[in-house]
Structures are given as C-alpha cells and as structure tokens.
Amino acid sequence: MKNPYKIPRPAQISFSGGRSSAFMLWNILKAYEYNLPDDIFVCFNNTGKEMEETLKFVKDIEENWKVKIYWIEFDCNLEKTPDIKRINDFIYKIVDFQTASRKGEPFEKLINYMKKRRLTFPERHNPDNLKYAQEGAGYLPNPRGRYCTEVLKITGASEFMKKKKIDVYNRILGLRYDEPRRVSNIKKKITKKVDVITPMYNAEHTKDDVRKFWKDYWFDLNLPDKDIFSNCDLCFLKGRKKTDIIIRQKPERADWWIRMEEENKNVFRRDRPSYKKLKEIIEISPLLFDDENDDGDLGDCFCTD
C-alpha cells in the first residue's frame, strides 16, 4: 500500500501552526527521509492574530526538524486608490519569527483596505453600500463573507506559488479522518490546476493519533487550552463558549476585535453581542457561563488545527 504521506509533487503544504498540521508535516518529512524535495514548499500564513505560543511552535518545528517554512503575510498600500481587480492591490511578503506581526497588522490593514474599497466601488456591493461607506461604516468579515480567510490565507498561498512560477500543483491540508465533512467541503475547491490532498484523512489518522504523538514528544504547542486557543485568537466563527473562555482567561485579546468593530461602526456577527459587550458581560460575571448560550463553532475555515 502506498504511503499517503508520500505526497504527489509539486506541492504546497499548508501549515496552520497547529498540532494536527504539524503531525502531518512530520509524517511527510518521514516519508521523504527527512529531506523534502525542492518542489515541496511548507507555508505558514500569519494574520497577526495568532497566539505567541503558535509562533513559537512554528519556530521550534522549523529549527528542530530542519525544515524550511515560509512565513507569509498580507500587505497593501492604503495610500493608493483601489484597483478594480483586488488582486492587483495585494502584496504578500515573507517574514520570520522575529519580524512576524503580532498585533493584527495584516488583518487590520485588510479591513481598512476593504473599507476604502467599499467607498470607491459602492456599486459592487449593495444599494445601501455608498450610504454605509459615507457614514464611516466599514465592511468587516463575517460568517457569510469570510474575505479574511480568502485573502490572508488562500490567496496568499496561491500568490506564493505563482512567484515560484508553479501553476499546477497539489495543496496539502491537515484534515483528519474524524473530519469527513471538512474534507468533503474542501474537496469542492479542487480546480484543474490545484488539487487538494488530505494525507491524514487518507491514512485514517484521528485526533487521538495526534494527541498520542505529542504526548510523548519533547516539545509541544504550549497553548493554555489547545482545543480553544488555536489559530486566529477570537475568530468570529468560534462558538460562544470558546469565545467566552478566551476572553475570561486573556481579556486583552478582545481589545483588537472591539477596536475593529468600533472604528468600522459595524460588527463581525449580528446574531450575538458585540465583542465589547461580551467582554463587559464577563467582567461582571467572570465565572458564569450558561451552556444554553453556546452556539457552537460556526462553519469551517481554511485555517486548520
């Protein structure tokens, strides 16, 4: 039987900075006898909203496993009038552990760009868009319009491969065997030029396999709660219970999200309180949480564990 981790080439390994994708990377390295071919690229897209422990974990893997990881960050020139084609305005730069953004700079710059674009091309949104823009209301990403994932992660990964002059390749994602719905959804994104490969799913590796691997390993992802403090810290797709736990333990992590909502006169989600209100509720009743208020994680994202 062919080793699922002997992935077809050329390939781009989408490394989220989480334990599952790191487990996948280890098995791919092992399949290639710890020496990846030149046409396999490991990419980590930093939004600036990852926990410091995640960045440290990526650095530890890069140094200890002797594997090159490309740290990719979004950028753009906000002084420039937006182009009709968004992609013409996007810049993706390579950073490292020392220079990686830690205060949400790439994400904030994208939000500010979309606000400016909304005012420049109101006809490309809805009839009320110009009025909203003139009133100073920005266009925040939301469950129905996750442009943050699209631009900060997916497009960044694609543009990286374009710069390598590789048009046809395989995108490798760390989705497990116990995530069949996510695998099914992501397979819908296969194109003629970019195939999506899920070696963990093909190898039937589950969350238990990931936990067993890291339980005995000599370094690990040292997040307070690895199932809650993962990826983008207070992502609006996270369920209410997870969001409350993070704000309770790390209240300062809510401040960026509060500022984005206030500066844009808008909210990331309309079906629950604003981030400011959530923080106020927790400050009043820090130990109280009613499970009936938990709405569960909302949908899937390109960001993986």
Walk me through what this model shows.
There is one protein chain. The chain is α/β, with parallel strands linked by helices and 305 residues long. Helices cover 38% and strands 10% of the residues. A 6-stranded mixed beta sheet has the order 4-3-2-1-5-6. It is globular. The protein starts with 10 loop residues before the first strand and ends in a 21-residue tail after the last helix.
- Quaternary status of these chains? single chain
Number of domains: 2
| Amino- and carboxy-terminal Cα gap | 27 Å
The CATH architecture of the largest domain comes to 3-Layer(aba) Sandwich
CATH class of the largest domain: Alpha Beta
Structural class: alpha/beta
Order of helices and strands: EHEHEEHHHEHEHHHHH
Taken as a percent bin, the fraction of beta residues is 5-15%
Give the strand tally.
6
* Annotation field: number of helices: 11
Radius of gyration, in Å, reads: 20 Å
Helix content: 25-40%
Main β-sheet, spatial strand arrangement: 4-3-2-1-5-6
Largest sheet properties: 6 strands, mixed
Shape by Cα distribution: globular
Q: What name is given to the CATH topology of the largest domain?
A: Rossmann fold
Average residue pLDDT = 91
Report low-confidence residues grouped into runs of 5 or more.
none
